[in-house]
Amino acid sequence: MRSSKNFGIRKREAVNLLKSVVEGQCPQQVSCADILILAAREAISLSGGPRIDVPLGRRDSSKPPNSSLADSSLPPPNMGVDDMLHLFAQKGLSIEESVAINAAHTLGVTHCINIENRLYDTPKSDHANEHGFVMFLKLSCPQGSLTSNISFVLNEPTPLTFDNKYFINAINGRGVLRIDAEIPFHPRTAPFVQHFAADQDAFF
Question: What are the E-state strand segments in the chain?
């Protein structure tokens, strides 16, 4: 399944290979959906995060992949705190859980195309970022770049390590996406951001 918001799941051929191997040993017992969940769990653990117990037993859809459904399930890059909390509340998450899941941004990169509007079309008074960091983002993602869909910036200084640096970075005015910049200062989310920044085990 490919979403325009995160450029889709990469290395899907590896999932197909794993599915084939598992099917050889346990026919019709393990879905591709469960394989993806287990791969995500291992990625978090191997990058320094907690090893999470995940329930299994998902079934694969019998319908073709639906990119519009994927898009509707993922937050857009310009989403603010209230909309983020509403989206995750619809999925049964509390405010604390919503703040924690947003810190998936502790890993990886953000493509320039996803922050161009915020950098160049948003009034300066709306920026929650530290001024020097905004300048860094603009240098990394120049306006009108022909490569904004492949150019990127690191989400935070340790993009290969699952840690609480995302929260520390955000508090210091270095959030890349709009939600990253706003989440430390919104009254509903600020207490959890501060708690997770001060206590990595609490985040985990």
Answer: 109-111, 152-154
Of 78, 62, 60, nearest in space to 5 by CA: 78
Q: Quick one: which H or E segment has residue 111?
A: strand 109-111
Region class of 108: left (phi > 0), else alpha (psi between -120 and 50), else beta: left
Higher pLDDT, 158 or 130: 158
Q: What is the DSSP letter of 103?
A: G
* pLDDT value of position 1: 47
Q: Do the Cβ atoms of 190 and 184 come closer than 8 Å?
A: yes
Neighbours of 109 (CB within 10 A): 14
Its pTM stands at 0.85
Mean pLDDT score of the chain? 87
54 within 8 A of 37, measured Cβ to Cβ: yes
The answer to whether the beta carbons of residues 169 and 175 sit under 8 Å apart is yes
Q: Which of 158, 131, 153 is nearest to 142 (CA)?
A: 153
Rounded Cα–Cα distance for residues 147 and 201 (Å): 39
Measured on CA atoms in the order 69, 204, 180, 138, is the torsion positive or negative? negative
Closest of 114, 110, 112 to residue 138, by C-alpha: 112
- CA 170, CA 151: separation in Å to the nearest integer? 22
Give Rg (Cα) of the chain.
Answer: 18
